[in-house]
UniProtKB/TrEMBL annotation:
Alphabetized SUPFAM superfamilies for the sequence: Acid proteases, PDZ domain-like
Coiled-coil portions: none
Provenance organism: Pelagerythrobacter marinus
SMART domains, per database record: PDZ
Record-given protein name: PDZ domain-containing protein
PDZ domain: residues covered: 315-386
């Protein structure tokens, strides 16, 4: 779920599985089949046509599609870096029976316990997936969870048996039957997909000069490339950082099932060496985090159409004919936390930091427009305002609370 990041190649498998909260010491309910057997069985697939094209919308960086869970239509986040999860509300509406539970760690390393249920059918476009094991999560436990998630998350355990093409330019997710996916275009980067069992996350090899490792293709991450700190600290990666591109800061790596991650050190930089499938994708913008594994996220969809061809055992990164312009990088990030708009990321030496902005500052106005009320009934509207009309990354003035009074900070242009 909205996950992120990597490790050394010799133990990358273990780290990736732990990060995706795979069943370990699962507490099983009495049932006809043990949970381990349910998770080991492939999900059955029924198709109306060899190719199903499903439109998606973007909610911030997330890809949102419509699907039917046991006949009930909901919007779901399509997240290749997470097992499938449905909301507690939907599970109760469908009358689903718990078949077991699992305690694992979320994308920020927090320990989370969830129940397992089985969907009889999950319909996406003209494709029906049968007997799909899914986790159940109460999104109300996250401050903005009900604003971001309707039915829940469609994740990686349904990926085997199909090829999945994500075209952000067209806003389409195409699901191909085996043998129906077109051949990789000339100039595309092709990399083997590794298979590790449930939840069948798309894991590929990458290399930065002589440092070789594995990463996860994760549509739950907004970045192009995210390197686990220990990989980012390696000598080959440091040598591949473009001079003058390194920025350091501090802040949270985002919200996952266990809530917002604790603040920690941040870096972002441009890599002049980044190889997938034996071909350079560099230069790429990269960030870091403290929890593995490393990953490629939706930032790469601005320049590439990505196909996860599970029957063919490969991931294909084809350059887009209409690449989107790179988004400007602000030196800070704002988010709703604890009922207020706060600074959750801040990079040293950025214009905002030089203007006096501090990590954790409470923002009460952006360019003179007061932050709307944030409460149980209004938090979703406030979130939409902050993500849209407020345009915080382009703000010229931020009003913060200091010593019980409002202080206006003038933010110079980057």
């Amino acid at each position: 779920m909205a996950g992120d990041e990597t490790m050394r190649a010799d133990n990358a498998i273990t780290v990736i599985l732990a990060a995706l909260a795979l069943p370990g010491g699962a507490a099983l309910a009495a049932q006809d089949k043990p949970l381990t057997a349910v998770l080991a069985e492939p999900v059955a697939i029924e198709r109306a046509e060899p190719v199903a094209v499903v439109p998606f919308t973007r909610s911030r960086h997330m890809l949102v599609i419509e699907a039917r869970a046991n006949g009930v239509a909901r919007e779901f986040v399509f997240d290749t870096g997470s097992p499938s999860m449905i909301s507690r509300e939907l599970a109760d509406e469908l009358g689903l029976r718990t078949i077991g539970s699992n305690t694992g760690r979320d994308a920020n390393g927090a320990q989370v316990t969830m129940d397992f249920v089985v969907l009889d059918r999950l319909e996406i476009g003209g494709v029906t997936f049968r007997d799909v094991p899914v986790l159940v999560f109460d999104y109300a436990a996250i401050e903005l969870g009900p604003c971001l998630f309707d039915g829940g998350v469609i994740g990686s355990e349904i990926l085997p048996g199909s090829a999945w093409r994500i075209d952000a330019g067209a806003g389409e997710l195409s699901i191909f039957a085996p043998g129906a996916v077109p051949a990789a275009e000339e100039g595309a980067v092709v990399a083997p997909l590794h298979r590790f069992g449930y939840p069948h996350a798309p894991v590929i090899d990458y290399r930065v000069d002589e440092m070789a490792d594995r990463l996860l293709f994760d549509t739950g991450s907004p970045d192009s490339v995210v390197l686990y700190d220990r990989a980012a600290a390696s000598r080959p990666v440091r040598a591949a950082i473009r001079p003058g591109s390194l920025a350091r800061g501090e802040g949270s790596h985002g919200v996952s099932a266990g809530g917002r991650g604790a603040p920690g050190p941040l870096e972002r930089f441009t890599l002049d060496s980044f190889v997938i499938g034996g071909r350079q994708l560099a230069p790429v913008r990269a960030t870091t985090r403290v929890v593995p594994p490393s990953l490629v996220g939706t930032g790469l969809l601005a320049s590439h159409v990505v196909t996860l061809d599970y029957p063919g055992g490969q991931a294909v990164f084809a350059p887009r004919a209409d690449p989107a312009p790179a988004a400007a990088e602000a030196g800070y990030a704002l988010a709703i936390a604890d009922g207020a708009v706060r600074v959750v990321r801040l990079f040293a030496q950025s214009p905002a930091a030089r203007a006096g902005l501090r990590l954790g500052d409470r923002i009460v106005a952006i360019d003179g427009v007061r932050v709307p009320a944030i409460g149980p009934a209004s938090r979703c509207e406030a979130m939409e305002w902050l993500a849209g009309a407020a345009r915080p990354g382009e703000a010229e003035r931020l009003t913060v609370v200091r010593g019980g009074r409002d202080v206006v900070l003038a933010i110079p242009a980057g």
